[in-house]
Every structure is written in structure tokens, then in C-alpha cells.
Amino acid sequence: MRGMFTAGVIDVLMENGISFDGGVGVSAGAVFGCNLKSGQHGRVIRYNLKYCRDWRFASMRSLITTGTLYGAEFCYTEIPYKLDLFDIPAYRANPMEFYCGCTDMETGKAVFRHLEKGDGEDLYWFMASASMPIVSEPVKIRHWKLLDGGISDSIPLRFLENKGYDRNLVVLTQPYNFVKKTNKALPLIRRVYKDYPALVNAVATRHMRYNRERAYIKSRAASGDAFIICPPEPLRIGSTEHDPRELIRVYDIGRQTMLEELPALREFLNKR
Question: How many CB atoms lie within 10 A of CB 44?
Fold first, then answer.
């Protein structure tokens, strides 16, 4: 739910007519960030507020009855197709390229997918990107078994640069000087995923990879090739949140942070 910070950021971007040629999202950054391509201002905060107390959206009951903390059927079928429509025609019409990152359970490596249609298989890629270990079923797409993209590549700036994008806005949901530590759930992950040693190794080494990525992003910002948006202090919100006031609080931090940085971002984007 730190992704509510991202939701606030992208709404301010849309309000101010700031668009991008391409983007990549991982986990909540994928399932929330895709609304930037579909141009659906306010959609993320709207459906989160409406359904945050619905057991089908995110709950232990959902985990017990469906195998996923965030109910797959409700979140990726009921909401986008029936309850709060994802604007598929607008998503397809926007020339912005949008990629999402997942983790291949067999190899422990990142798998990125260019999502052009916004429905069908694309929604499974979004779901896979946000499928947290332990509390989610693996998502099977073709020959892949996939989980949360953050395991293998939490902040894929290099991926986007390798696609030719040389001026990039990086939205982080941890403060600037945050340092990730070893996953406390690693012993449990070793037991649950004992048949996937590459995945376990990816989880065990994630903090080192993540901290290297943060250092790289800072170096790119220092050279003028990246622009970082991040919360000024820890957001103090968990993986789930049933209190609408907390969702609004984090969303508003994202809005305020982006509003304060708008002049500097415009200057950065206008440089040649």
C-alpha cells in the first residue's frame, strides 16, 4: 500500500498534462501505474477507498478461501471489467509504451513484458507483478510461473535505459536514504519454495541488489539523467490497509511531494 504514494504522484502528473513516451512498473507500480497510460485520473484512490474493507479485495479470508491475500478474481476481473472499469480503449490508444516486471520462479530472474492491450493476458502479467510470495498463488502464463517483480528487480531503471529512454522519472516509495535489509520471512520462504532454489536465492539476495539499484539511481540523478520522486519520510503503511484515512494520508503525501517538485521536474524534462 506504499503504492498509494505513487497514485498521488501520477494523479498530479495527469492534472498538469505531463506525459511520457514509455514507462515500466513493478508490483504496485505496475497495477497502479498503468492508469497513467489509460489516463484515468483518480481511479486508483477511488477503487481502493471503495473496496478496502471488502474481504474480496484484501483479507485473511481471501487468503484462506482463494489462496491469495489480494483476491485475484475480484481485483483483476470484477473491478476492472465490472465495478470500476479500466479504460482499455484509452490504454490502447495512448502511444506510451508500458512494461511490467515479474519474477520467474524457475530462474529467479526478472521477466519484463510490453503490455499493449490492457486486457486478457496483460491483466495476468499485472497480477503476476504484484503477487507477493507466501500470500499469493504463482501466476502461470505460457511457460512461466511468476511472482512479484520486486523480488528480482525492484527499480528497473537500467531496463528502461536499455530500451533507449534517456530522461527518466523514478518514483520510489521509500525515503531517499532508505537501505533495505534481509527479508525477515526468509526462513519461511526457504520452506515454502524449497523446490525453487533460484527463487529462494533471489529473495535472499534481494536487499543487496535493491541497494545497488538505489545507488545507481542516485548516480543517474546526479548526472542529470534521472529525476527522483520519493516520500520525505517512511510512509508507515503495510501491505494491506483497511482504514480509508490511512490510504488518503499516503496518497496525499504523494500528491504534495509531486506538487512541490513540479517546477524542477518540468525543467528536467525540458532539457535537451
Answer: 26
Choose among 147, 151, 125: nearest CA to 137: 147
pLDDT digits (tens, 9 = 90+) for 166-201: 999 999 999 999 999 999 999 999 999 999 999 999
Any idea what DSSP says for residue 26? E
Within the chain, where are the H helices? 3-15, 28-38, 43-51, 60-66, 72-73, 88-93, 121-129, 157-162, 186-192, 197-204, 206-222, 244-270
Which secondary structure element, helix H or strand E, spans residue 228, and what is its range?
strand 226-229
Q: Quote the radius of gyration of the chain (alpha carbons, Å).
A: 18
Helix (H), strand (E) at residue 140: strand 139-141
Burial of 176 (0-12, 13-18, 19+ CB in 10 A): middle
Does 272 have pLDDT greater than 80?
Answer: no
What is d(CA 208, CA 211) in angstroms, rounded to the nearest whole number? 5
Please report, for residues 65, 118, 151, 171, 247, the alpha-carbon distance to residue 53 in angstroms, rounded to integers and kept in the order given.
17, 26, 28, 27, 12
Q: How far apart are CA 268 and CA 219, in angstroms?
A: 15
State how far the Cα of 111 lies from the Cα of 186, in Å rounded to an integer.
Answer: 22
- pLDDT-derived band at 86, boundaries 50, 70, 90: very high
90, 118 Cβ separation under 8 angstroms: no
List Cα–Cα distances, 262 to 12, 13, 17, 66, 109, in angstroms.
Answer: 9, 8, 11, 42, 35
